[in-house]
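Sanity check. The docking grid for zinc ion depends on where the pocket ends up, so I'm generating a full predicted complex first rather than guessing from homology. Inputs follow.
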Amino acid sequence: MSETDRRTRLPCKYKCLRCGLEYEGTHIPDVMEELSCPKCASNSQRRLKDKKAPAAASTED
Ligand SMILES: [Zn+2]
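Predicted complex below; grid placement will be based on this.
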């Protein structure tokens, strides 16, 4: 086992809730990151692609 595997950044897509820009990025599982839109700098970003996204618990608001 490798401890670094837990910190591997996974590719995912984000969408800016302000200007609607969709862009590719990365995220680290179990780590909350502050994101800002590369276009309008808004921090209201939603992750579009997540392998284990709980449908009921939407905390990314
Ligand atoms: Zn934006």
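Relevant for the grid: The first strand starts at residue 10 and ends at 16.
Also worth noting: The chain is about 0% helix and 25% strand.
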